Amino acid sequence: xxxxxxxxxxxxxxxxxxxxxxxxxxxxxxxxxxxxxxxxxxxxxxxxxxxxxxxxxxxxxxxxxxxxxxxxxxxxxxxxxxxxxxxxxxxxxxxxxxxxxxxxxxxxxxxxxxxxxxxxxxxxxxxxxxxxxxxxxxxxxxxxxxxxxxxxxxxxxxxxxxxxxxxxxxxxxxxxxxxxxxxxxxxxxxxxxxxxxxxxxxxxxxxxxxxxxxxxxxxxxxxxxxxxxxxxxxxxxxxxxxxxxxxxxxxxxxxxxxxxxxxxxxxxxxxxxxxxxxxxxxxxxxxxxxxxxxxxxxxxxxxxxxxxxxxxxxxxxxxxxxxxxxxxxxxxxxxxxxxxxxxxxxxxxxxxxxxxxxxxxxxxxxxxxxxxxxxxxxxxxxxxxxxxxxxxxxxxxxxxxxxxxxxxxxxxxxxxxxxxxxxxxxxxxxxxxxxxxxxxxxxxxxxxxxxxxxxxxxxxxxxxxxxxxxxxxxxxxxxxxxxxxxxxxxxxxxxxxxxxxxxxxxxxxxxxxxxxxxxxxxxxxxxxxxxxxx
Amino acid sequence: xxxxxxxxxxxxxxxxxxxxxxxxxxxxxxxxxxxxxxxxxxxxxxxxxxxxxxxxxxxxxxxxxxxxxxxxxxxxxxxxxxxxxxxxxxxxxxxxxxxxxxxxxxxxxxxxxxxxxxxxxxxxxxxxxxxxxxxxxxxxxxxxxxxxxxxxxxxxxxxxxxxxxxxxxxxxxxxxxxxxxxxxxxxxxxxxxxxxxxxxxxxxxxxxxxxxxxxxxxxxxxxxxxxxxxxxxxxxxxxxxxxxxxxxxxxxxxxxxxxxxxxxxxxxxxxxxxxxxxxxxxxxxxxx
Lengths: 534, 288
Hints:
The complex is a heterodimer.
Chain A: H1 3-13, H2 22-25, H3 30-58, H4 69-104, H5 112-131, H6 157-185, H7 198-229, H8 243-277, H9 284-297, H10 313-325, H11 327-341, H12 350-373, H13 375-381, H14 385-415, H15 421-447, H16 462-490
Chain B: H1 2-5, H2 16-35, H3 39-68, H4 74-113, H5 120-126, H6 154-177, H7 181-213, H8 220-252, H9 262-287
Helix pairs in contact in B: 2-3, 4-8, 4-9, 6-7, 6-9, 7-8, 8-9
């Protein structure tokens, strides 16, 4: 080894962040990249939120108020794409970037340059996607599921939609490879797989799901592209294809995708509840097996999204029972969280409040999911507002609440300052009340027969729609409070945070100072029995 | 040396990823506009390709430089190995979509259009007594009458070529491990030459299919699955052959040792992967 290389290495060990824009454009530091993911996620969350409010404004009263029906469809489509791929997924990848190296005692992500690439593809992908609003024919209006033949009626936006989905897929695949390799290859020597924190475990499983299904989505949209531009017949019956085949392929991606959106949320809750119950996580290993079972089952339930398109009776029975089977491992998780709190010394800081709300509200979404799994019932509920209520109950007070809980939980570690606890609690209560005001009435609307994705409705649905719209505006405005609390904390307005932040929390991330130094664990830490829960 | 090896190498800042993102953006926007009928779109796409190629060359030469200067310890090497493994796994999933489409149409949608299961009236009223067969271009006779691409002739030659290239690649690998550089260079060169020969013959097969068999992408579901599967496979063979060419050029420069040659192995894994995909293709697309 020449001395020049050794010198270079020596100087790198005490490396400070680069100045200005280069720090972010050329970033290889997992904390910088995690921050960028989280900021992008917040921007997309607010963007998708504005679209949601446009939808709710239109639905405040029966009749057409503000936007043309086609624009309404563009809003529902883009709201879903932006929220799923722009808000929730990048937020969890951002949390993974920030926390996984800190939780397993790694110096950084395993492949830091690829980490940068995974992130920086995203802003370009969303630039492409959102720019379609200004194209002839407008943005995609087929729903985020992009079913043919409807999606083939998209105007100039069509290839932009397909290729932005490709970009999102490339980004997710690289991000998932990085997370798997980091977890498998970069753990501190004493950290065996079953000693890993639950957040790391759920992300390992999530990353595997991403690698298995993002290429499937890429294949599906590629076939849409060739059907549109190159004369293939994949989804055209006259040529021997089948539009229903698209639905099968899409949902083979789509169902694991919804667990990609929720498994890291389970991980977050499994970190937070033990800290504020001051007890180890109940049944750590069974949580691992439950999450793995959920991931396995996610591959064999997809057709429950398409019971009404027609399939053999045996198919309906298989997908009905396999879907209901998911309630078993999910129930294991819920009961383990409850058992963790049993006789715990509980306190109710904002992250804990959000986690508790997840327990109640996600479970409501789970139960409505069970109702939808039952074939004869689903034929009634299909494509109604009941479905909208169901998946918003699992995605908003499930995934989004978990992201916010995680931000409150780890923000002091990131910034070195406490957030404003009082305002945090106000934000929690406003969010929780308004989310129920928004989505609970949708159950009734759906059961009464109101179809989704229609800008107008029959007059008997007016009251509940008005209530839902009021709730949506309230929820949207409450998130501005969240932005305020986070910005104040980042600006250092709160009191100084200790390295532990909370009352004797477990995990390696609490052994480094707050704010976490730019480089951590350049030498792998020794793991004492007190720093892990199992 | 020991000092560098006891820590995981974390690069500090790199401009290649952002260049790659800009390149991909130009590429995707360009191809989208081109498909929408804009001629400038084509040139935007080509500029994107150029930027991506520039990025790949620059990024890889940076990493090769770091590797040659001994910055990567065992753990970094393992990260690269796992990364390549999971990348190939995602590629397997990508191909399985098109195989899935092939099996679905053969075993489900085509028989259903022919009245199978409970589709008697669909067949009678919509498709006028269409009788399901495979291969098929559907009840609408999409693309007009055509002939099927048989398993013998060029496809068989191509199978032999790819299988042979796997053998030559393995001989090259053993030569590298045994320190026989001369043998390594010859057999590695033979491997990528066989690879490019495969691509050339595949192109000849396409020309034959288009001009003499009237078998086109528009030939219903048979043409669709045929060209999608063989097309993406051919694209991957091309990429793999370029990878092996770069590895060969590096061997000519004296890179790789008997113990440290991850890049060689990564390219070899990729090559075996496209080989296995071809075997599945040969059985399910050409033969059965």
